[in-house]
Amino acid sequence: MARKYTLQQRAKQQKETRQRIIEAAVYLHQTVGGAKASISAIAELAGVERLTVYRHFPDERSLVMACTSHYQALNPPPDPGPWKSIKDAEQRLRRGLSEIYAFHRRTEQMSLHALHDMEEKPILREVLAPYFAYWEQVRDLLASAWEPKNASCSTRIRAAIGHAISFQTWRSLVREQELEDAEAIELMASMLRCL
């Protein structure tokens, strides 16, 4: 009986150690960026040795996958499903942008570092492929409510919506141009109306 208890305790400790490593990596990725989040820094913050980090995550991909999954579970993007019931294109856009911009605001620090880190760590683009696919689906859902006059107009609508939902667009309008989220949404809605 004592042996079974010891194995269960060991498994529990390993799980807790793994979680501490993931949380330390997420914290560093969000505060200094993944490119600067060394294994040594992650180990120190998690209170473990470097070798322990490598035992749990033998390569960069496994660590990045675990961190991404953990962060996305804590910060899920908006669920576009309910937007489908909004038939009016502009109302659907406004509702979507409202939720999207709240998400961008909430995840701003991580998004800033992730965009920068993708240039230095190509593995991030691979790991984040489902995340990018999500944004394409959001763009297409929002675009589907508009009734373009022709194929050229349809292409411009998709491009404009893709631009409107982008983190970089939100950051430019809110941080650089100092608009409130509501003003940025109104500007993007006006842009779509012009099309």
Automatic annotation (TrEMBL):
Gene3D superfamilies: Tetracycline Repressor, domain 2. The keyword Signal does not apply. Residues 15-75 form the HTH tetR-type domain. InterPro entries: Homeodomain-like_sf (IPR009057), HTH-type_TetR-like_transc_reg (IPR050109), HTH_TetR (IPR001647). It comes from the Bacteria. One of its GO terms (molecular function) is transcription cis-regulatory region binding. Keywords: DNA-binding, Transcription, Transcription regulation. Residues 38-57 bind DNA. This is TetR/AcrR family transcriptional regulator. The lineage of its organism: Bacteria, Bacillati, Chloroflexota, Ktedonobacteria, Ktedonobacterales.
